[in-house]
């Protein structure tokens, strides 16, 4: 089963967190889960919308105090 990687991009604006998520998937062989930690509210729509174009699936979006956790997955 593929693993999960956490990418902390707090302080960075989209599309940087999206780019870092794609890099993380590439390091994992193109599958698994990546949790993006961001404080840029723009990413809440940007990452799932653009991720869908690359066959990434939205697992969850969780609001924390001062930041968000966006978890995306890809099986193949």
Overall description:
The chain has 76 residues and is α+β, with helices and mostly antiparallel strands. It has a single domain (4-74), classed as Translation Initiation Factor IF3 (2-Layer Sandwich). The protein is built from 2 helices and 4 strands; from the N terminus they run E-H-E-H-E-E. The chain has helices at residues 16-27, 43-53, and strands at 4-8, 32-38, 57-64, 67-74. It has a 4-stranded mixed beta sheet, with helices on one face. Strand 1 (4-8), helix 1 and strand 2 (32-38) form a beta-alpha-beta unit. The longest helix is centred in the first third of the chain and has 12 residues, at 16-27. The protein is globular and about 30 Å long. The N and C termini lie close together (12 Å). 22% of the residues are buried.
């Amino acid at each position: 089963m593929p693993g999960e990687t956490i990418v902390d991009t707090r302080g960075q604006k989209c599309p940087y967190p999206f780019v870092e998520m794609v890099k993380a998937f590439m390091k994992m062989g193109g599958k698994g889960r990546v949790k993006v930690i961001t404080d840029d509210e723009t990413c809440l729509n940007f990452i799932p919308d653009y991720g869908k174009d690359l066959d990434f699936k939205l697992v969850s979006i969780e609001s924390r105090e001062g930041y968000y956790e966006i978890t995306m997955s890809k099986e193949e």
